[in-house]
Queue: 2 jobs
Job 1
Amino acid sequence: QTRKGRPTMRKGTILAVDDERDLLTLVKYILEREGYRVLCAADGMECLERARREKPDMILLDVMLPGIDGHSVCRTLKNMAETASIPVVMFSARPKTLGLFEGGRAGADDYLQKPFSRMELLEMARNFIGGGSSTAWKVDSSVGELSPEAPGKMREAWMGVIAFTLMELLVVVS
């Protein structure tokens, strides 16, 4: 494959999972133009099967899927020895702080809020496939609590959840 007459080197393989075909087509187009190999799945079961069989370098996983939801798929991937080390980036229209919190509890490595830009998508792919971690936060998924090594992004997510809860309480009280 060439891009503007130059050979394109494959940068890695990404498994993109969403039940919205148009979004999958767009994600695949963006990532393939940058040299990534993109596999697609339309539901949680297909994601689990393809992840085991193909061993992608990263999984881009929608939260809302038919059948098994994205959080359950993520927990399963992180509990299977053959897929546990694959970075999982969850995406949804939910607010970023809430998505970070919920995704972290499921074992996700990061979160993209829909709609996301081309640059946000490419940055996420570069961060994980290039060997780095975009946020590197950790949550004890068995109890949903911050682990001692959780850095700023997860604390920021917790603070957003706490602030939102406090604002709701103030509305109820007043």
Note: The CA atoms of residues 159 and 165 lie 10 Å apart.
Job 2
Amino acid sequence: PLIAESIKRIHEEKLSAYYFDNTQPPNQLTNHIRKKKTEHTLTMDLQTLNVQSRAVSGKGHARRTRSQGNVPGILYGAGKENFSIIAGAKELDQLLHHGQGEHAMVELACTDNPEINGPAMVKAVQHHPVREHALHFDLIRIDLKTKIITVVPIKTQGHSVGIVEGGVYDYHMR
């Protein structure tokens, strides 16, 4: 029953990139996953990320920026000019770890340079090897009217009957 409910939820919310062969009994559905035939749309609210433009680049300036509690980054893409930017370390950490994850879609808000404003997606984040805080981030401009391919985090909820009875949950990632 839990598998059937999960599959029903996936279809209703259009979260899946696969479709299931519904001719099989519910307990065998997971064995009959077929490749995607139809496209699904996932809509999400854009979180606002306040940024500032920066004119100076280089290792020394980046270190001073980090010591002031900010993280240097870059905004590129969509055939427009690249911009060096700065975001608050706490705000960026909140976005990455408590928001939509490492590939979050954001609405940029910049008071000193209006060309930077608009939707963007986190493309890459460089982390400190020991402390794991963000050292640098890359944002890519996106057009909300065009299709993109990205990584979407999937969170499982609850426990299946098999796990409750002593089974092991084997989660495969590609």
Note: The two ends are 27 Å apart (CA to CA).
